[in-house]
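Many groups now describe folds with learned vocabularies. In that spirit, our science desk offers one protein's residues alongside their backbone shape tokens.
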Amino acid sequence: MIHFRHINTLNPFDWFLIAGVVIFSLLYSLLSQTFDALGMIAGVSGIICVVLVAKGNIFNYLFGLINVSLYAWIAFKAELYGDALLNAFYYLPMQFAGWYSWIRKREADESVTIVARRLTLRQRYLLTAVSVLTVIAGAFLLDMVNDPQPVKDSATTILSVIAMFLMVKVYMEQWILWVVVNVISIVMWSISFIEGEPHSMLMIIMWIFYLANSVNGWILWVKLSEEGQSVLK
């Protein structure tokens, strides 16, 4: 039986992000006179998940299970097939892999917080080259199946795959990719909103707060990885 201590690692900014998604989702529902329960649950569970990731808190994977399951369905309905496949066949199983990996990389046996690390300079160059080449290849493939936004969909899909792998392996550089993914996702869902996709506005709200959290996560993990480097030494 695993016992945790200091489960609540959230600060006022984290609660601001979570409350922001809830409030803006409710405001949109009132203004549009529609209540998108599916989109709201996906958005709220998603922001809680990424806020906990930024804190290096292992409980992010519990909320991640809810978010990726719902988001896969929403993306499929919006014909964003890359995002749908990413969530259903990669993010979902990675929630279990991530939990198992983070359990072993915690700072103490009863802690909910992991010890982060960094890539070497050579690994960063390799990461950049692989990211660019695979995004280009993915865009060609998605264009062949008539994806309406092949370049953007490929970028969010490929970079998210790489970022999720880095996240499971507790590397700080994941946040650089998450920032890029979040910016592209905001653009992508904005286009879907213009085209009339019903869940798109709540997804835009979710991704805006994801972007704010990814910047915060980048800052926090720079510190966590510095502490991790000290531990490794």
User: Anything to note?
Assistant: Residues 12-232 form one domain. The chain has eight helices and no strands. The chain has a mean pLDDT of 86.
